[in-house]
Amino acid sequence: MTTTSNNRLANKVIMITGAGRGIGAEAARLFAGQGASVVLAARTEAQLIAVRDEIAASGGEAAYFAADLSQASSVERAVRFTVERYGRLDGAFNNAGIAINVASLIDEQEEDFDVIQSVNYKGVWLCMKAQIKAILETAGSGSIVNTSSVGSLKGNPGLGAYGAAKRAVNSLTQTAAVEYGPSGIRVNAIAPGTTMTDMIQQWVSINPEIIEQISGKTPLRRAAEPIEIAQAASWLLSDESSFVTGVVLPVDGGLSA
Ligand SMILES: NC(=O)c1ccc[n+]([C@@H]2O[C@H](COP(=O)([O-])OP(=O)(O)OC[C@H]3O[C@@H](n4cnc5c(N)ncnc54)[C@H](OP(=O)(O)O)[C@@H]3O)[C@@H](O)[C@H]2O)c1
User: Fold this and answer.
1) What does the alpha-carbon distance between residue 186 and residue 188 come to, in Å, rounded to a whole number?
2) From CA 224, how far away is CA 226, in angstroms rounded?
3) Residues catalogued as catalytic
4) Ligand 1 nearest-atom number relative to CA 229
5) How many structural domains comprise the chain?
6) Is residue 124 part of a domain?
7) What is the reported pTM?
8) How high is the mean pLDDT in each 10-residue block of the chain (257 residues)?
9) Which domain holds residue 166?
10) For residue 28, what is the domain's CATH number?
11) How many angstroms separate the alpha carbon of residue 18 from the centre of ligand 1?
């Protein structure tokens, strides 16, 4: 488990989507190390069990619920499980996402477009719908962080539908922040740049130079490790960011600057 001296998430119950690997798994380890009880959601049960067991072995508190976040009933069951298991919901890191089949707009397949929207865009909406209700009914106030992408901030050649879905996430984030701020729920997004996970590897298999190419345009001249993205999410979920809401925070080494 990733531990820090910071206990900033102590006593919070946090749902993390896409927690089986990559950024979400690293966030689960970090948040648990910072005192949160975490509920891990994704489709691949074996990966969720592995992360849950790793956190438990390090003395952290974690449970998992296998869910397809593009399906409303699956999302609702995952949120209900969280509340039944821990009695409340204080926050969520809506991080699950897919990036498939790099292609220019005219070559992008309609079925790929639809599946990207169903997970990256509709999935975040479904999650917030269920989570905001659960937070209001239990903890009363809380914090939600959605994972967008640096690709949402301008044109996104090769992943047009993905960039559009992530820009929709930015819009949903700001709308939720405005609608639920008066109720004490903060809603923010993080927009990661290139991050060393399985997701980026599919791009590397098409273009082995892609990480060097993007790093060359990135002021910090490198890709991120998943922990660097998780740390930004942790801060936004914590009370340390208590006056921050409606923000889309680039965590991109300066790529969008
Ligand atoms: N890596 C990057 O460079 C980068 C850059 C910008 C933004 N991001 C964003 O960061 C987030 C995490 O990406 P990552 O790099 O950690 O990717 P990853 O390693 O591929 O992990 C993605 C996670 O999302 C889950 N997921 C995908 N579809 C799902 C569905 N329908 N229902 C439930 N869970 C689903 C996956 O689990 P299952 O497949 O088991 O369901 C997995 O746990 C994504 O939103 C991604 O768009 C990544």
Assistant:
1) 7
2) 6
3) 162
4) 10
5) 1
6) yes
7) 0.97
8) 72 98 98 98 98 98 98 98 98 97 94 97 98 98 98 94 98 98 98 96 88 96 98 98 98 98
9) 13-194+225-251
10) 3.40.50.720
11) 5
